[in-house]
Design brief:
By secondary structure, the chain is of the alpha+beta class. Helices cover 37% and strands 30% of the residues. The N and C termini lie far apart (117 Å). It comes from Chitinophaga flava.
Length: 161
């Protein structure tokens, strides 16, 4: 009988292959974890910035369309005709917009990073607001806004209320 030898992998070769496979699997697992973390961070920032731009655009449109800007407590009142008054006020972590249609919109801008200030006219004691200064801090960056209302002379000098 011929002396035949079976061809097979040695135990050493199998151990080397298992070690290399586990190293590659570990690297892939870490890369997926890093990618997943970056995606969540980017998705959260993108959602926040979308809220930021939507809020800014809505306030800008409302200020352009209003006749007067006044302050009622901590709220900003943008008044047009009787049927077109819009209110902006802050909640716990949201900016709310109560529209003239009776709708209540909210913008998820974190209250801790939100500052706003209503700028009044110095020459008059009327409740008109000349501008609206707002800044939002997100991811250690500050996004300032300044909205200025251009009034007709009749409104400024009290001929029209």
């Amino acid at each position: 009988m011929m002396n035949s030898r079976l061809k097979a992998f040695t135990i050493l070769e199998l151990i080397v292959v298992m070690i290399l496979t586990s190293i590659i699997a570990g690297i892939v697992y870490m890369a997926i974890g890093i990618f997943n973390h970056q995606y969540r961070f980017f998705n959260g920032s993108a959602t926040y910035m979308l809220q930021y731009h939507t809020c800014k655009q809505q306030i800008t449109t409302d200020i352009r369309n209003c006749k007067t800007m006044t302050q009622a407590g901590d709220s900003l009142v943008l008044a047009g005709d009787t049927a077109t008054t819009v209110y902006y006020f802050r909640g716990d972590s949201l900016i709310y917009r109560k529209g003239y249609e009776g709708t209540l919109d909210s913008f998820a801008l974190h209250y801790s990073g939100l500052q706003w200030e209503l700028i009044r006219f110095r020459s008059t004691d009327r409740t008109l607001v000349a501008g609206f200064n707002m800044s939002i801090r997100h991811n250690d960056e500050e996004y300032p806004w300044f909205f200025k209302k251009h009034y007709d002379e009749a409104i400024l000098f009290g001929m029209d209320n």
